[in-house]
Each structure stands twice: as structure tokens, then as C-alpha cells.
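ok so i was messing around last nite and threw this chain in just to see what happens. nothing serious, just curious
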Amino acid sequence: MKTLYQYAIVRFLPFAETGEFANIGIVLCAPAGSIFAFQLVPEHAERVPRFFPQINEALFPLTIRALTEELIKVQQLAEQQKAPEVFAAFQQLTQPNEELICYSSLRSVLTAAKPDELLAQLVSQLVP
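result:
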């Protein structure tokens, strides 16, 4: 059976004025189910600091840790909520903003893959 998922690419945007960002993960939701999942690059990923050599070396690891904590809380809440509330929280999370972490527009995929399988596939395609 196929499931409709919506996902957004998680982006690290240290300098909002330039608009330059690095893709650092994926957040995923099944609007018809109470599924919320995510995968982020490791906090010690070398690619991002190489992309932004002018940032403080502690900024990216701290950002990943804080974001991971936030997304774990959303995931825990999703396990206790009904599908409409989970999807509403997902939509709220991914709203456009001018912060250090931002999200792409929502994208959809219809697949028989399990959430973890789909996450791994999307990360390999979209988060080099």
C-alpha cells in the first residue's frame, strides 16, 4: 500500500542577507497518519563549515544539537496526536522564516517505502 508523504529540505542559512544556504537534512510527514520523521547531517559534518568558512566553528554543531532536540520534541508530540494535528504542526514548523534554520517549500511523494527508507533515499539525493 502506498502512502502520501510531504517533506521539506532543512537548510542552514547563516547569512540571511546573502541567501546562501546548505542542505542539512529532511523533515517528513504523512498527512493521513501520525507520522513525523527527520534526518539531519551529523553535527561534525565537515561540508557545511567548509561551505561557510567565515562562521564560528562552534555555530554549526550547536545549531544541529538544538535543532535535533526541537525535532525530537515534535516527533514525541506526533506520537500522541491525531493525524490533522501532526500535519498542522509539520506545516507550522516548515513555514518560511528568516532564521538560521529554514525549510524548502513542501514537496509530496507517493510511495510504498517506510518512513526511514524514504528519509534515507531523500537524504542521499538532496543532502550531499
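not much to say yet. The two ends are 30 Å apart (CA to CA).
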